[in-house]
C-alpha cells in the first residue's frame, strides 16, 4: 500500500501489469528502485536487513541485434555493459536475485554476469534454461547462472521436468 500511495502521490500510473506488479512509466530502473526503497523505509522496514529485492528483467524481450535496447532511457547496452549495469544495481540496492538478466541465447553475457556477481547474487536462468536438460547441462558446463526456475509447462512433460530437476552440477 505504501508503494501504491507513493506512486499515486507522485502522479504516476498505479495500474497493475500482466505479472501483478505496478507498471508506471518511470525514467529508469534506478528511479523505480528508489520508489521501492523509500516505500520499504516508510513502511517501517530496513532494506537489506529485513527486506531484500529480486528482479525479473525479462531481458530477451529487449535484446535486439546483439544489444539490450532500453527504449525509455534511449540507451543501448552491449552484453558486457548490460552485465555491468546489473552488477551496479546489485551493488547499489539490496538485490539478492536477478532472473533473466540477460537474453536466453546470450551465453557470453550470462557467463560475464555470473563471473561478476554469481558468488553473491542468485542468477536465475528461466528463459535461459526453459527447464530443458540439454540447455541446463550447457549452462553448468559453461558456468552460467547459478539457479534455474523449473516450470512443468516449459518443457512439455512431467518426466522431462523431473529430468531437469535431477540434472547434477
Describe the structure concisely.
This protein is about 40% helix and about 15% strand.
Fold topology:
Elements: H1 2-9, H2 29-42, E1 53-56, E2 63-64, E3 67-70, E4 75-77, H3 79-92, E5 95-99, H4 107-117, E6 122-125, H5 133-142, E7 147-148, H6 152-155, H7 158-166
Parallel strand pairs: 1-5, 5-6, 6-7
Antiparallel strand pairs: 2-3, 3-4
The order of strands across the largest sheet is: 1-5-6-7
> Radius of gyration, rounded?
17 Å
Give the ordered list of helices and strands: HHEEEEHEHEHEHH
Average of per-residue pLDDT values: 93
Indicate the CATH architecture of the largest domain: Alpha-Beta Barrel
Helix content: 40-55%
- Strand fraction band? 5-15%
Structure report:
There is one protein chain. The chain has 169 residues and is an alpha/beta fold. The chain folds into two domains: 51 residues, no CATH class; 118 residues, TIM Barrel (Alpha-Beta Barrel), CATH 3.20.20.120. Helix content is 41%, strand content 14%. The chain contains seven helices and seven strands. The strands form two sheets. A four-stranded parallel β-sheet has the order 1-5-6-7, with helices on one face. The protein has a three-stranded antiparallel β-sheet with strand order 2-3-4. Helix 5 links the parallel strand 6 and strand 7. Helix 1 crosses helix 2. The radius of gyration is 17 Å and the shape is globular. It starts with a helix and ends with a helix. The mean pLDDT is 93.
